[in-house]
Amino acid sequence: MRNSQTQRFKLPPLATLPAFASAARTGSLTLTAREMNLTPGAISRQIKALEDALGVLLFHRSHNAISLTEIGRQYLTHVSAALATIENGTRALQPDRARLVIQAPITLARRWLIPRLGSYRHENPNVDLIIESLALGATGVPDVVITYRRGTAEADFPSAFLLDRSIAVCSPLLISGSGSHVQPQDLLDLPLLLDTADAWSWQRWCGAAQMAFKPRGGSIAFDTDEASIDACISGLGIGQASPALIERALREGQLVALCPGVNPIVGAYEISIAAGTPASVAFNEWLSGWRETVGEQ
């Protein structure tokens, strides 16, 4: 006698779907791991478990990246729609909560924004924050975008919340003592760390010190100021940064200021896009409060 009970369709492991969707969007297990606060190995295992359950290959894998197969692209359409439905349904159960997506340069986010977010959360406990780094290729739809713009005068930035006044710094491993005996021209005999290929900040700094930018000790160029700061802390050379971005490193003695009287404005951080939602307006107002203390940073 045939069993008339209908066999239930077996779903794949649902906990693996967010990792699949994120990996499809970023094309990187490392970025997905950062986004989900897991290890790349954990993300890889989740995706493999999903593929095993489905019996199909969802990604092409290479040494440095992953990309969707044709079946993976088809499946992503359904998974993305399902996750969006769940997210919207969950938010409907919490109508008093808001969501704010902030995109910002990685150095500002890591070294300035995150240490101050406690005060924002205290003032806005009903807002869920998503912080995305522009340097890591943020792809979400932002409510607020913070950008950096070059300039040499405070008047160039009437709406900036943080001026970038660049000072020369180095690890105490590189220069003995406090560095108070060092003169501006002495720095050109040491390796200089550049946070841009055109040495914008160092050009402005040397101009403020009334000398030409002619590094005699060589240089190392990076594509982000975050990398330049890390190299400076490691003792690779003389770096430059806004005191507001390295306040902890200065406070804990990882870095020492050199010739602190030479501190030209080289740019500023400002909001370039704001969605106009209540949450984004409140965030802008919160940043404006910090603008009043720019001179104290």
UniProtKB/TrEMBL annotation:
<dbReference type="InterPro" id="IPR005119">
    <property type="entry name" value="LysR_subst-bd"/>
</dbReference>
<dbReference type="InterPro" id="IPR058163">
    <property type="entry name" value="LysR-type_TF_proteobact-type"/>
</dbReference>
<keyword id="KW-0805">Transcription regulation</keyword>
<protein>
    <submittedName>
        <fullName>Glycine cleavage system transcriptional activator</fullName>
    </submittedName>
</protein>
<dbReference type="Pfam" id="PF03466">
    <property type="entry name" value="LysR_substrate"/>
</dbReference>
<feature type="domain" description="HTH lysR-type">
    <location>
        <begin position="12"/>
        <end position="69"/>
    </location>
</feature>
<dbReference type="InterPro" id="IPR036390">
    <property type="entry name" value="WH_DNA-bd_sf"/>
</dbReference>
<dbReference type="Pfam" id="PF00126">
    <property type="entry name" value="HTH_1"/>
</dbReference>
<comment type="similarity">
    <text>Belongs to the LysR transcriptional regulatory family.</text>
</comment>
<dbReference type="GO" id="GO:0003677">
    <property type="term" value="F:DNA binding"/>
</dbReference>
<keyword id="KW-0804">Transcription</keyword>
<dbReference type="InterPro" id="IPR036388">
    <property type="entry name" value="WH-like_DNA-bd_sf"/>
</dbReference>
<keyword id="KW-0238">DNA-binding</keyword>
<dbReference type="GO" id="GO:0003700">
    <property type="term" value="F:DNA-binding transcription factor activity"/>
</dbReference>
<dbReference type="InterPro" id="IPR000847">
    <property type="entry name" value="LysR_HTH_N"/>
</dbReference>
